[in-house]
Amino acid sequence: MKSISTLAVLSFCGFLLTACSKAESVPESECDKVVAHAKSVLKENAPSKSDMLKQCKAASDEARGCVMAADKPMKLIKCDF
Hints:
single chain; mainly alpha
């Protein structure tokens, strides 16, 4: 019985780590997609495309992944973009 409990706890911890893991990395070559996604999230509040492309190219792969994972403006703000 103890081994079943231990296995259950380890499985749950694995689920939590997966659920809270960082977004997938996105390479600089995908900046057009990242900018398009960010503009769709920010709508009329989005900066110009050229400004966003500059930011995207200067950002890390992880930051671009964060932007792609964001589905609301407040989530996008949390990205180091």
